[in-house]
Write a structure and sequence with these properties.
Layout (H helix, E strand, L loop, with lengths): L20 H14 L12 H8 L3 H13 L3 E4 L3 E4 L24 H11 L19 H12 L4 H9 L8 H13 L9 E4 L1 H13 L5 E6 L3 H9 L3 E8 L2 E2 L1 H11 L3 E4 L13 H14 L2 E5 L13 H5 L4 E6 L11 E4 L5 H12 L4 H12 L2 H26 L3 E2 L7 E5 L4 H10 L5 E2 L12 E5 L6 H15 L1
Parallel strand pairs: 4-5, 4-7, 7-8, 8-9
Antiparallel strand pairs: 1-2, 3-10, 5-6, 9-10, 11-12, 12-14, 13-14
Helix pairs in contact: 1-3, 2-3, 4-9, 5-14, 7-14, 8-13, 10-11
Length: 483
């Protein structure tokens, strides 16, 4: 197993006199803040804790924080400590800073923090990341699929794919293959009901824009996907969090919220929920669809982790017959993060509206990549690759679960899929900062709540959390917090 990377510069302090200890520490924390690895609102260590952690005097920590205050990166709150400030975008020379419109929605900064961790670990190990390790992906398979498309011999079609805009609804070959793929999981959708997108994230955005108007109420899972909270907030929606358990949402809470607020939409992950790994039960799915019918709201079902899940797992769109449900998925999680190919299967009377919104957002989508994904589906390449990934993930999950439980953690939901939702017994936001200093990127529980409430839980990625060195550091830092 890999050993953790050397700790960041704050733990490799030089005493050669070229820079003071406080200057080195200030540079370390400033870099973390500017990279958004310490999000606005994060609390810095207390003076005593910082002195102990870095092996310096309390006076050095005070001098460090004074420098960060002078740079405008932190703020002091009386009797509470030092906190990372929200930084406004710099104004052009001679311009006054732009004022935010009154009552404009404030996008949760947690989302950008999580995305930055997802897109690149900055040289750190990532037990909390949201993707599969690059070594698990099959680059030769992707190259072979592209070669097949390029060497297909259909020069007229290839020219259209490579040199012109694709069809607004998406590549017909891929939509045919997707219709078959959806049938395999019980979702009956004709190719004309399917529209391709730039990943599942764009599909979520396009459906939201087609269905909603600013001020509409939207039901969301809690805990849930921080980026989805931020995206809906940016669109001006009112979020109605519904507690999410191992078998699905708390239906009593959902019914009370629906009766009082008349939501237009519920956004959920039915299968291998992020971050809990929970699976919607058949009974919960039936009751949920009854509530949607009674209170007249639509459902977006995000099936991003479909390729890691059993085909027989209940899908709302299968039970609903695509009447109120919009079924969304993509391929970046299983093929490669850079392959931004997604899709939505929609009720027949909504598909033309969605195509209109897509054209305004991105004109079309890359037909060349879509045809390569179609090849992966048609030739069984994706199915065989997914089977290999699932087998490898099962083994990794077993190791990660044993290590987590050995470190005194408990799983809130049965461990399955890519993610585990772990009870640690300490504030995981503070713990995440300590582990960051040890070279580990984690995903504290506060990132998965709309209002950033403190949490003793964290999300782990079973594929990237199987390093015993991480769990040793986890135990050391957690125990230090308890003392």
């Amino acid at each position: 197993m890999n050993a953790p990377l050397p700790a960041p510069s704050a733990l490799l302090l030089s005493r050669d006199g070229s820079r003071t200890l406080s200057e080195q520490l200030a540079a370390h924390y400033a870099a973390l803040i500017r990279q958004r690895l310490l999000a606005p609102g994060s609390r810095l260590p207390s003076v005593r804790e910082g002195a102990s952690r870095h092996g310096v005097s309390p006076h050095t920590i005070v001098a460090t924080y004074d420098q960060l205050l002078a740079q405008g990166l932190v703020e002091a709150q009386r009797q509470r400590g030092f906190f990372v400030r929200e930084r406004a975008a710099p104004a052009q020379r001679g311009e006054a800073p732009a004022a935010s419109p009154p009552d404009s929605p404030r996008v949760p900064v947690d989302a950008s923090t999580l995305i930055r961790g997802m897109l690149g670990s900055g040289g750190r190990h990532g037990p909390g990341l949201g993707t599969l390790p690059p070594a698990w992906l099959d680059a030769p398979m992707l190259q072979a699929a592209l070669r097949r498309v390029l060497a297909s011999g259909r020069e007229d079609e290839l020219g259209a794919a490579a040199l012109h805009y694709g069809e607004p609804a998406g590549d017909p070959r891929l939509r045919e293959a997707l219709a078959q793929r959806l049938a395999d999981v019980g979702v009956r959708a004709a190719p004309r009901q399917i529209m391709t997108t730039l990943g599942a994230t764009q599909a979520l955005d396009l459906v939201s824009r087609a269905l909603l108007a600013p001020g509409d109420a939207v039901l969301v899972d809690e805990p849930g996907w921080s980026v989805e909270y931020a995206r809906l907030t940016l669109l001006g929606m009112r979020l109605l969090p519904v507690p999410r358990g191992p078998d699905g949402p708390d239906l009593a809470v959902m019914e009370a919220l629906a009766r009082e607020h008349r939501p237009r939409l519920y956004v959920t992950v039915s299968v291998l929920h992020n971050p809990t790994g929970g699976m919607l039960s058949l009974a919960s799915a039936h009751q949920l669809l009854q509530l949607a019918q009674t209170h007249d709201f639509h459902v977006i079902e995000d099936d991003t982790y479909a390729h890691l899940a059993p085909a027989h797992a209940p899908r709302l769109a299968a039970l609903d017959g695509l009447k109120r449900c919009f079924h969304i998925s993509g391929f970046s999680k299983i093929l490669a993060p850079g392959w931004r190919v997604g899709f939505v299967a929609a009720p027949s009377d909504w598909i033309e509206r969605l195509i209109d919104v897509k054209m305004l957002a991105s004109l079309t989508t890359p037909a060349l990549l879509e045809q390569a994904v179609a090849v992966c589906l048609e030739q069984g390449l994706l199915r065989r690759h997914a089977e290999r990934v699932v087998a490898r993930l099962d083994a990794a999950r077993g190791r990660s679960v044993r290590l987590a439980q050995g470190a005194g953690c408990e799983f809130v939901c049965p461990p399955q899929g890519l993610f585990g939702w772990v009870e640690t017994g300490v504030d995981t936001e503070a713990l995440a900062q300590r582990l960051l200093d040890d070279g580990w990127l984690t995903a504290p529980g506060c990132l998965f709540h709309p209002d950033r409430q403190p949490s003793t839980r964290m999300r782990i990625n079973f594929a990237t959390a199987q390093d015993a060195a991480f769990w040793r550091d986890f135990e050391n830092e957690r125990d230090a917090m308890r003392r």
